[in-house]
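Look over this entry.
=====
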Amino acid sequence: MLGFLKEPVVVTAKINVSLVALTVMGLMSRLWGLCYPRAVVFDEVYYGQFVSLYMKRIFFVDDSGPPFGHMLLALGGYLGGFDGNFLWNRIGAEYSMNVPVWSLRLLPALAGALCVPLAYQILVELHFSHCAALGAALLILLENSLITQSRFMLLESILIFFILLAVLSYLKFYNLQKHSAFSGSWWFWLLLTGVACSCAVGVKYMGLFTYMLLLATAGLHFWHMIGDQNLSNVSLLCHFLARGLALIIIPMGLYLSFFYVHLALLYRSGPHDQIMTSAFQASLEGGLARITQGQPLEVAYGSQITLRNVLGKPMQCWLHSHTNTYPIRYENGRGSSHQQQVTCYPFKDVNNWWIVKDPGMQQLVVSNPPRPVRHGHIVQLVHGITTRYLNTHDVAAPLSPHSQEVSCYIDYNISMPAQNLWRVEIVNRESDTDVWKTILSEVRFVHVNTSAVLKASGGASLPEWGYRQLEVVGEKLSKGYHQSMLWNVEEHRYGKSQEQKEREVELHSPTQMDISKNLSFMAKFTELQWKILTLKNEDTEHKYSSSALDWITMDTNIAYWLHPTSGAQIHLLGNVATWASANAAALLYLCLSLWYLLRRRRKIYDIPEDAWQLWMAAGGICGGGWAVNYLPFFLMEKTLFLYHYLPAVTFQILLIPVVLQHLSDHLCRSALLKSMFSALVVAWFSWVYFVYCTFSPLTYGQPALAPAELRALRWKDTWNILIRKQ
């Protein structure tokens, strides 16, 4: 039974020494001197704020993309014992001793280092030679811009790592298709493709471009499978379901999980709460939750409420009134009703409280048992402090003459009767008998007499007589549900005091009642995802912003860091030799492809069919990867920087050895031509290495260069190399 112990257990393994060496060199190039400089470098000032918020479990919204990349950066901080206490307010600020700089920069550096062996393996899986694969890896290794971007607390290197991992995984899966379909390794690489695509999208939405490319490639390959008569219908169905599961269902589930972890970690109220709905804010610990916890859920006749406008733009605000009236005449000569002003006020105030009144009764308290207000009910809204009724009529609003003025009615004994009946319409109701709920219900107030809808007029501020508060109007003939017309109850109590003085005391006291309600994960995810997609900061011109056209010829750079006393500095600059070669390779690939297509159309086949398929497959991955990661930026209305081009240029660099091997194999017919071509390639690669070494002081920030040396590195007039005045 124990006979197997008589012989030694021997394990044999094949080790690709080139791959190991490339990995080690990648790690050395990215990890060397990682803590230098021990100061905030460019966008570390941006991402560092989010890392601190993760450490303190404080909720935030970043409109630049999903949270997975931020969580990876925060993981580095967590592993380094970072407590989140650092003021990220200035590029170049020295890090305090509690900031684990090496740990925070480690994951981006590891991701950047692993891109080197990934490039090698991608060329191998595309069936190119070992030399071509080695050349691709060395070009990535010596690319200054990729080194710079991966050595700091930034996301591009992580994004590129997942993009390349997704491409490699799909190629390995595809190469196993003919001989090992549905094997363990087949499933592993297919599932890893979906996981890597989801991670790429989770880091930055730019990852979606490569994800779409791989989906299109998988769709094309499956289309070819449909024409294979050797595959049965059942087998085709299984292949289709497997791809759908691995490339669509699992990535979607994983993408959701990023938000689930994000929301689970950030459970405390923070500075970004105000852009979220009241329901979302109330689900966070502290902040609004401290006010709304235990409020009554159902709004009843006699309820005392504050009404928050759902739109929240340009800022959150609440329906408000005060004793001041509209001026008899505005600056432009138009007249008003001279009624009590109604505004949308961006701060919490006792004048934000309103009482929901039954038009058929006089009492302003909640009965026992409470009578809930339902969808379609008619109510009057009584201002809590002044006890005047919310009113609108056929008088032009002060700033929006096409809309009706909204006021609190004052009886001047003139022919202007009160028109203070409003129909409650719950927009997000499940049925027509739904009860109006605190925080959860989004409500339209439709004026009974004129059918106008109560609306915040989109950020228009009243003049001095209105204390610069936001205008509220009655919008006529409105059929849609724009968020500026929607309101939700934020603070709520059941009124108990019929006397006005007692009621004023009640309105000034905090709300403490007995029902609370939290949002589900899907509701929070939907709201947060929508905010990320629609919330846009004002794009302003940045000193180092650029256009997409500037990237191809590298007519721009970005100064990341400057030493406070010496000339040491770090710039995002690509390897000029590599970028120029990548452009030439892309142009040559396009010209050769068009030439071959024209010749093939004439039934002239210059290269064998298997070489043609290899040429097209490599172009689809490398050339297609460059196109999908570059061309969309011409359609984007946002501030662009050189680092946005890094995923695209990575694919373009992979195209260089593809073109070089093709030229050597099919255009250099004689041994002499091949030898001359090889010598040119060696000379060219020496040029690439020379440029890498020349610009490495600007890549690593050391050694510090003298002003004359810095001027010598300004190879283009458009580069902004920083030179201190002596």
About this structure: Residues 511-517 have pLDDT under 50 and may be disordered. DSSP finds 20 helices and 14 strands in the chain. The longest strand covers residues 453-461. The CA atoms of residues 67 and 262 lie 7 Å apart.
